[in-house]
Amino acid sequence: MSSGRFGVGEAFSSLRIPDYKKLWWAGTLSFMSVQMQFLLRGVLAWDLTEREGALGLVYLCFGVAMLIATPLGGVAADRLPKRRVLLVSQAALLAAAAGMGIAVVTDRVQFWMLLLAAVTQGTAFGFFGPTRMAFTAELVGREQLGNAITLAGLSMNGTRVFAPSIAGALAGIAIIGIGGTYLIAAVISLGALVQLLRCPHDENHAAKTKARPLAEIADGVRYVMARTHLRRLVFSSFVIIMFGFNYVAFIPALVKGTYDLSDGWVGLMMSASSIGAVLVAVPLATRADGPGVWRLMVFSGIVFGGGVFALGLATQFLVAFAVVAVVGAGTTGYQSLSNTLALNMTDESHHGRVQSLMMLSFAGFGIAAAPLGLLAEWIGLRPAIMFMGLAALLAVVIYAVMEHRMEHEIGRGPSPQSVESAPLDLPK
Questions:
Q1: Domain of 381: which CATH number?
Q2: Segment holding 100, helix H or strand E
């Protein structure tokens, strides 16, 4: 892996580990269910209100719940059996999907139910995300960590290629509709729960402590704040995802409101980013544990932010589709590599809490959606998307300037201690 040489077998090397393969399949099914619900949630919110601000409010509830739950999820990942935390989180995701499906099928759905489902999912993700990352590191070890994280991203983005389109197509069939599609997503979520039950028990790996959760959260924050490069990575990731990734929340409004197209086209647009993500994932997996990782992450972040800005400029659907595909490639590269770098700079005892801080960017994404929705109503949707991209792009550039001496040491895969203590020097 260190050579960065391309090879199909090398790209999927971490899946040769049986226990990680079970976790990977659980994540794939869970992501598929969630991606279907992202489309359904957006379409349902738009159909109930026809306001961009309502779309933003749904994501605000998701973000606030995730903001509160994610630090606690990091503590749980470090202090409790990871398999148990994942099972409870997945059960909550299953309940949210089934509940929305029943509400729509029985014709009792109301907008507040979308908000409640968003809170439930945000809370579940707050525990699921950092625990899954920490469990991955435990199952594969540091040598294949980048490969495993990239393949986890491939499973997420691969489902985004077809899951939204399937959801849109199923929702358009009268006998199934949005409610039936929600119930199908719930069945897929049940499959993820079954796969998690097959994962190994890890009770022996759970740390024993009498410290209170808030004290453990504070310890995780202090851990990050004491490490300059890790601190900068966490803060920059928060801003980049909070602003840049918000374009996803407004795709239904962009397609249906700006381009005046139907629900099926919403699914197609949401799938576009995944096409770019899947195309880049396999070659990325061969380089995720090799040299030049920092530079590749920065480049991916620039493509991500610049692509979102270009989306705001697109006046035609086909142009926007192509731009979103490029954005998907940049998103995959940035997220996979930033998480890999963060874990490699972190001691195993703090994996969960550091990942929870990295995941707070998605809470920020949800929280920022509401004011960005109001901004879109004020200045127009396309200018608002341009603003999102510009904010993410500036954050990447500022981070790269501050950390321009970082690549050489991190690219060689040092221990977390040496990253923080050794002088860093980029090859000129």
A1: 1.20.1250.20
A2: helix 82-105
For residue 343, give the nearest of 190, 138, 205, 116 by alpha carbon. 138
The answer to whether residue 3 sits within a structural domain is no
For residue 154, give every residue at least 6 positions away whose Cβ sits within 8 Å of its Cβ, in sequence order, or none: 277, 278, 281, 282, 285, 332
The CA distance from 412 to 44, in Å, is: 48
2 lies in some domain: no
Q: 9: exposed, middle or buried (C-beta count within 10 Å: 0-12, 13-18, 19+)? A: exposed
Picking from 96, 98, 101, 102, the residue whose alpha carbon sits closest to that of residue 115 is 96
User: Is 106 a domain residue?
Assistant: yes
Output the CA–CA distances (angstroms, integers) from residue 265 to 38, 43, 145, 314, in the order listed: 14, 11, 36, 16
Contact 73, 377 (CB under 8 A): no
**Structure token pair of residue 377:** 């109503």
Is 1 within the bounds of a domain? no
Please give the residue range of the domain that contains residue 90.
Answer: 10-203+211-421
Residue ranges of alpha helices (H) inside 106-174 are: 111-140, 145-171
Q: Is the distance from CB of 333 to CB of 299 less than 8 angstroms?
A: yes
Model-level pTM? 0.70
- Total tally of structural domains belonging to the chain: 1
User: Residue 133: its pLDDT value, please?
Assistant: 85
pLDDT (0 to 100) of residue 26: 94
pLDDT tens profile 358-398:
877 776 776 787 788 888 889 988 999 999 999 999 999 99
Which value, to the nearest 10 degrees, does the dihedral of the CA atoms of residues 284, 25, 60, 362 take? -30
